[in-house]
Amino acid sequence: MVTIGTPLSETATKVLLCGSGELGKEVAIELQRLGVEVIALDRYENAPAMQVAHRSYVLQMTDGAALREIIEKEQPDFIVPEIEAIATDTLAELEKSGINGKSVTVVPSARAVQLTMNREGIRRLAAEELKLKTSKYFFAETEDEVRAAAEKLGFPCLIKPIMSSSGKGQSVIKSEGQISEAFEKSQRDARGGGGNGSSKSMKVIVEEFIKFDYEITLLTVQSVSGTTFCNPIGHIQINGDYRESWQPQKMDPAALKRAQNIAGKITKALGGYGIFGVELFVKGKTVYFNEVSPRPHDTGMVTLISQDLSEFALHVRAFLGLPIPAENVKEKETKGKNKGKKAKSGFKVVKQTGPAASKAIFREGTSKKISYSGLEKALEEKDTQIRLFGKPEIKGERRLGVALAKGKNVKEARKKAEKVEKRVAVNFY
Ligand SMILES: Nc1ncnc2c1ncn2[C@@H]1O[C@H](COP(=O)(O)OP(=O)(O)OP(=O)(O)O)[C@@H](O)[C@H]1O
Ligand SMILES: [Mg+2]
Question: Does the domain at residues 214-349 carry the CATH identifier 3.40.50.1970?
Answer without folding.
Answer: no
